[in-house]
Design goal:
Helix content: 25-40%
Radius of gyration: 16 Å
Order of helices and strands: HHEEHEHEHEEHEEE
Largest sheet: 7 strands, mixed
Number of strands: 9
CATH class of the domain at 56-205: Alpha Beta
Number of helices: 6
Distance between the termini: 39 Å
Strand content: 25-35%
Strand order of the largest sheet: 5-4-3-6-7-8-9
CATH architecture of the domain at 56-205: 3-Layer(aba) Sandwich
Bound molecules: S-adenosyl-L-homocysteine
Structural class: alpha/beta
C-alpha cells in the first residue's frame, strides 16, 4: 500500500467507531476492511479532507461515492466469504470494490462511464488490488462469461431487479440492490435457493440511477 499517514488512519478509525460500529455493523471482516481501505485515495484531491465524513461525495460525471455506512451495510448483508466471487455493477470510485476485495477471492466490477472506468482501473493497479477484474459495459446485462456469482451488489438505483442478474446468481447466492424511483429506493436483499428467489427490504436509500438495457433508459 501507499503512504497512508497517521491523520487519515485516525480519521478512518473514528469513521468506523462512530458511523459503522455505533450503528450496529458487527461483522469482523467488514469492520477490518473498513479500517484498512484508504478511502481518501478514492476521492479527488479537493475533497480529500472530507473523505471520512458521514455522507456521499461527488466523484465526477454526476456520480457519487456512497456514504461509508451504506457501503458497510451493503457489504455485511451480502454475507461474503473468502472464497466467494462477487459481481459489482457500478464501479464508480472503486471504493466498494476495494472493500469487497479485502474480504473475497475475486471481485468483478462493471462501469458504463468510460472516464470513471479508466481512472479507477489505474487506481486499482496503483493500490495493487490484483483480485479486482474490471469491465467497461452495461452492467444491467451482468457478466455472463464469469457467472454464476456467489454474490451480486448493485450500487446504482434500479427501476426493477434486472433479470440477467438474477439468472447469473448462484444457487445459495445473495444480491443487494436499490430498487425504486429516481428520488428514493428500497435497499432489497435477494436470496436464491432451489425453490426460487426470496426478497427482503433493508430500508430506504438514495442512489444515482442505474442506466441501461435492464435499468433506466
Ligand atoms: N460503487 C461505487 C458507487 C458509484 S455511483 C463507489 O463505491 O464509488 C454508481 C455508479 O454506477 C456510477 O459510476 C455509474 O456510472 C454506474 N452505473 C450506472 N448504471 C450502470 C450500468 N448499467 N452499468 C455499469 N455501471 C453503471
Amino acid at each position: 500500500m501507499e503512504k497512508d499517514d497517521a491523520k487519515y488512519t485516525r480519521q478512518r478509525e473514528e469513521m468506523v467507531r462512530r458511523q459503522i460500529e455505533a450503528r450496529g455493523i458487527n461483522d469482523p471482516k467488514v469492520l477490518a476492511a473498513m479500517r484498512k481501505v484508504p478511502r481518501h485515495l478514492f476521492v479527488s484531491e479537493a475533497l480529500i479532507d472530507q473523505a471520512y465524513g458521514d455522507f456521499p461525495l461527488p466523484i465526477g460525471e454526476q456520480q457519487t461515492i456512497s456514504q461509508p455506512y451504506i457501503v458497510a451495510e451493503m457489504t455485511q448483508s451480502l454475507q461474503v466469504n473468502e472464497d466467494d466471487r462477487v459481481l459489482e455493477i457500478g464501479t464508480g470510485s472503486g471504493y466498494q470494490a476495494a472493500i469487497l476485495a479485502e474480504i473475497v477471492f475475486r471481485v468483478y466490477t462493471v462501469e458504463r462511464i468510460n472516464s470513471l472506468f479508466i481512472k479507477t482501473r489505474k487506481l486499482f493497479d496503483r493500490l495493487r488490488y490484483h483480485n479486482i477484474v474490471t469491465k467497461y459495459s452495461d452492467g444491467t446485462c451482468g457478466w455472463k462469461d464469469e457467472s454464476p456469482f456467489d454474490a451480486i451488489i448493485v450500487t446504482a438505483g434500479a427501476p426493477e431487479i434486472p433479470t440477467p442478474l438474477v439468472a447469473q446468481l448462484a444457487v445459495g447466492g445473495r444480491m443487494v440492490i436499490p430498487v425504486g424511483n429516481q428520488y428514493t429506493q428500497d435497499l432489497i436483499k435477494l436470496y436464491k435457493d432451489e425453490q426460487g428467489i426470496h426478497t427482503t427490504s433493508l430500508g430506504g436509500c438514495r442512489f444515482v440511477k442505474l442506466m441501461g438495457e435492464h435499468g433506466w433508459k
